[in-house]
Amino acid sequence: MADTNEIDKRFDIHEIAKNKLQDLDRYLCTIYCCHSTGCKSSGSDDILDLLKSAVAEHELEGKVRIVATGCMGLCAQGPLVRVEIKGQKDVLYKRLEPLVARIIISEHVIPALKLEAGETFELPEFLSKYVLSLDLPFFTKQEKVVLKQAGHLDPEDIQEYIARGGYLALEKVLKTMTPAEVAAEIKKSGLRGRGGAGFPTGKKWAQVAAHTEEPVKYIVCNGDEGDPGAFMDRSIMEGNPHSVLEGMMIAGLAAGSDEGYIYVRAEYPLAVSRLKAAIAKAQELGLLGDDILGSGFNFHLHVNRGAGAFVCGEGSALTSSIEGKRGMPRVKPPRTIEHGLWGKPTVLNNVETFANVPLIIRNGVDWYRHIGTEKSPGTKAFALTGNVVNTGLIEVPMGTTVREVIFDIGGGIPDGKKFKAVQIGGPSGGATTASDEHLDLPLDFDSLKSIGAMIGSGGLVVMDEDTCMVETARFFMRFTQNESCGKCVPCREGTKRMLEILDRIIANEGSLEDLDLLQELSKTISETALCGLGQSACKPVQSTLRHFRQDYLRHVVDHHCPICNG
Question: CA 125, CA 127: separation in Å to the nearest integer?
Answer without folding.
Answer: 5
